[in-house]
Write a structure and sequence with these properties.
alpha/beta, globular
């Protein structure tokens, strides 16, 4: 975990965080940065052109069980006119930093790190990949989407009532934490719960409160029930019956600049120390999932 370089993460966020709707000049620059970063980390890179967009897929073969795959992904597109620093420059930069660290390790299972396209249009990029995923067993897919917005101020966290009722244990923890919005949230389906708990254990060893919310088979695809927890690229894998989990900062509940609704989503609003803990815990969890 100590190998994480939060300055590298911050540099990537600063580069990525400009308007980059699919097909734009900066969208292409970010796509190229994903490919270059993964190649430099020792991954074999493919640009998956699925018709309307392009995913960047980095693959590092496992040393013992190459047909078993652990995946980490983050979407690199965003809506027009919004810098999208937290959403999702933070996640893309995070995936590239995890790739840099784990690219130095000999992992028994194959590791794929992906930059998804067209998440904002309806998860199109990750869905194209998940639907075409064959010839290997997916152990688990990790998803980063908004991992950098945090606050240590008391009562800065918003936890919607229906979620508090569904996850009373986490709600009690947040009350005891005096409502500080500096905890890591993880949403998993039942088949990925053990990986989520592994990440939680690593995060809490760093002193970072973490909450795991496990959705049932019925809940994970029910947009009316807990759709706010099922709006990112992990859903593409759930649709295929594949284990997946989502790591995020809960900014979607409380960040005024989410989608630039009230102010711009810029890099200066992010918390580098918080993001570093997300990356440290996720790196350890991914490495464990990959058999290290």
């Amino acid at each position: 975990m100590d190998c994480i370089d939060s300055e590298r993460w911050a540099e990537d966020v600063a580069f990525i965080a400009k308007s980059r709707p699919p097909g734009s000049i900066h969208w292409q620059k970010v796509q190229d940065r994903c490919a270059a970063g993964l190649e430099k980390a020792g991954f074999t890179v493919e640009r998956q052109d699925y018709g309307t967009g392009v995913n960047v897929i980095g693959r590092r073969e496992g040393t013992e069980a190459p047909s078993e795959v652990v995946l980490l992904g983050a979407h690199y597109d965003h809506i027009s006119g919004c810098p999208g620093a937290d959403d999702n420059a933070s996640g893309v930069a995070g995936a590239l930093e995890v790739a840099r660290v784990l690219g130095q390790a000999a992992l028994p299972r194959t590791l794929i790190v992906a930059c998804w396209d067209e998440e904002e249009l309806g998860l199109w990029g990750s869905r194209a990949f998940a639907e075409s995923f064959t010839g290997a067993k997916l152990a688990v897919a990790f998803n980063f989407d908004m991992i950098g917005y945090a606050s240590s101020a008391e009562q800065s966290q918003i936890f919607p009532g229906p979620l508090a009722e569904r996850f009373p244990g986490l709600a009690e923890e947040l009350v005891a934490h005096k409502g500080r919005a500096d905890f890591i949230a993880v949403v998993a389906d039942s088949s990925a719960e053990s990986f989520a708990l592994e990440l939680e254990a690593h995060a809490e060893s760093l002193g970072r409160l973490t909450g795991v919310m496990t959705l049932t088979e019925a809940e994970k695809l029910d947009e009316d029930a807990f759709g706010v927890l099922a709006r990112s690229d992990q859903v593409s894998f759930w649709e295929q019956g594949l284990p997946a989990l989502h790591v995020f900062d809960t900014g979607v509940f409380r960040y005024p600049a989410y989608h630039c609704f009230s102010g711009l989503d810029t890099a200066d609003k992010l918390d580098q120390a918080f993001a570093a803990d997300v990356l440290k815990a996720t790196t350890a969890a991914v490495a464990t999932a990959a058999g290290l």
